[in-house]
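Notes on consecutive records. When two proteins share a document, each keeps its own sequence and its own token line. Never mix them. Below: protein one.
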Amino acid sequence: MALVLAGVVLPDPLGTETVLRRGVAVARVGASWLLTTTELAVTLPGRIEALLSNIETLMTRIDAVVDSADAVVARVERTTGAADAVVTTASAASESALSVIESFGPIAEKSAPMARRFVDNLSENEVDAAIAMVDQLPGLLDHMEALLPILTTLDTVSPEIHELLGVTKDVRRAVIGIPGFKFFRNRGEDKLADEEREAEQ
């Protein structure tokens, strides 16, 4: 079918039907695109609102993470401070220990041979005796506490003992001066000797 435009007949190589079909197809595609665009435009505010809500939720979580990170950093700083204090104390203790070791090092080196000799010559019986002696120390301490008051009075007893010794010497001189004392003394010694021999038999 020829196309007439302004009284002029134009050739129609494709055919009017074909052109109409193509125009309808283009119109359908345009209408479909317009419908899709309209739906997108209608739903876009809701999607944007949901997206903003998600962004707000994400920001809240990020804030919580940042707060947690700040708390962790604060704890780390406190721990670091405590660790620094411990390191300082350990350094001071180490320096003190080193000074003690340096002071006692020569003494230990000098006494090592004597200690080795002492240990080498120490027998099991001597160790047992030392342990037994240590076990007796509480009782010995009790006896010493009871004896100390007596010992404190010895300075007053000492002159009396000297006086008693002097009196004893005087009595001995007086007894020796008795006539016949020597005879009686010899007789007593002989009697004691006889008694000792009888006891031995």
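Protein two starts on the next line and is unrelated to protein one.
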Amino acid sequence: MKIVFLVVFAVASALSVAYHVGWVLPRQACEAKGDWWDPDGRVCAHPVLISDITGRVAGEPPKPAPAAATNPETAKAAATKP
């Protein structure tokens, strides 16, 4: 019976170490860098700012679309102008 308890203890200890090495330590390292941790895929992702994608500074209003792109009448008139 003593051996059974020792085997159960060894397996539980190994599982605990595997959990910490595989899930806890990578999460702590990722969050320490300021990145985002995804527990489902165990992925450390770097956040991307919207301003990096759009080229617009935060708080700046969006640029209006050209009239030709929004109104088919003006697009047709712009296409026929010499």
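For the record: The first strand starts at residue 36 and ends at 38.
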